[in-house]
Amino acid sequence: MFINIKRFDTKESSVVSYEVDLVNPTLLEGLNYIKSKLDASLSYQAGCRSGVCGSCSMRVNGTEELACAYKLNDGDLIEPLKNLPVLRDLIVDMDKMMSYNLKAVAWSSENSENILVTQDNAEKNELQSDCILCGACFSACPVYEVNDAFIGPFALTRSWRYMSDVREQDKQEKMQAIQSNGIWDCTLCSECVPVCPQGIAPKQDISMLRAKAGIMGFMDPSFGGGMDFGGGFGSPSFDGTPDFNSF
Ligand code: SF4
Ligand code: SF4
Ligand code: FES
Question: Looking at the CA of 54, which ligand is closest?
């Protein structure tokens, strides 16, 4: 079979066609074949070869896939992930995606309480804890075409992981961190859901964060224009700390 690979070096990109002489290979087996037999300069990355490490994520015919899990078809077009700078060929720089995790304060706080986690509590964020950092949801999100600062599905789903953790004590700080370029900028288009190899649904987690934001006194700034709570609540100048005494 022939497959087409979009190749990038520092200056330009081009699509190169390769003949892969293997029976029913995965994409990763196909790339290994090309690199070892046809073109040693092809660059891509992979680790576990079993869908665990998330490092082999790329796009096939426009859809995010793990190279070690995807079965190649004749004529497939292979491209790097979107919304991230391409370093070379199929390798992208994940620093930008990770920096949004930092922006969202999406980790366990130092002063998390050491309390018993029940089975019910654990089940609330078990799935989100299985994220393998593959970047597929980040690549699939169309919001980056118009807002490069969007915190995005990867970091927001991790934010929900900690916001829904019974041990977490700094929920106000975490919720504040995802107000600007965060939960309200998602269009709920669902593009991030089917591409996740772990079955995580970032859109659903963002919806949960929005509901929790409402309970905590935050609100969608796009509703702020017609409402006046006296203290600027909902306006661009609102600092995210609602004054309930003024209501
Ligand atoms: S649902 Fe939201 S986060 Fe997911 S792809 Fe659509 S806009 Fe992006
Ligand atoms: S949420 Fe899913 S698609 Fe997004 S980085 Fe984690 S494992 Fe990958
Ligand atoms: S090589 Fe680890 S997920 Fe594919």
Answer: 3
